[in-house]
Amino acid sequence: MKVAAPTTGRVMRWKPMLLAALVFLFADLSHAETATAASLAEQRAKAVTQVVLGILSYARWPVEPSQLRLCLIGPTEYADDLVKGTTQATGRPVLVRRLLAGDARIVGECDAVYIGKLSATERSQLFTALNGHPLLSISEADDPCTVGSLFCLRVSDQQVAFEVNLDSVARSGVRIHPSVLQLSRRRAAQP
């Protein structure tokens, strides 16, 4: 009578291969999650660019610039697509550059500012410097939109919306067409 050989030896040989397959599978899933997160971040950046360009297209300065100068102030999360440079739907080029919050060139060399994360002191100093100058300001960070910025972005995976601070608009010297409110409603309605 033959005695069957124990199968534990075969199982033991398969364990390293099974472990390697599981590691490969989880690594592949992790890569897919990272790729998906990167894709979402890229989509948000493109959506922010569209909204910012839309806002800028509804703005009129006392002296219209032939080339719009947009300055990014502070660390930003969604401005990567803007930095690549762009052109408005009207064909007007938008020159984008980064400046520090305390840079004195902001007032003279920027038509609009896109504000990232700043400390309360930096924000206060920036808005004091902007006061009395025709500059459009868009805030990216979680801003209650009650002081300073004309527009405050609300970015999510589904949409990019914005709030308008009418008091800041009135004091800015930049005229904003009333249709910008409809742009805000359309963005809010998109899935």
UniProtKB/TrEMBL annotation:
<feature type="signal peptide">
    <location>
        <begin position="1"/>
        <end position="32"/>
    </location>
</feature>
<dbReference type="InterPro" id="IPR025293">
    <property type="entry name" value="YfiR/HmsC-like"/>
</dbReference>
<protein>
    <submittedName>
        <fullName>YfiR family protein</fullName>
    </submittedName>
</protein>
<dbReference type="Pfam" id="PF13689">
    <property type="entry name" value="DUF4154"/>
</dbReference>
<keyword id="KW-0732">Signal</keyword>
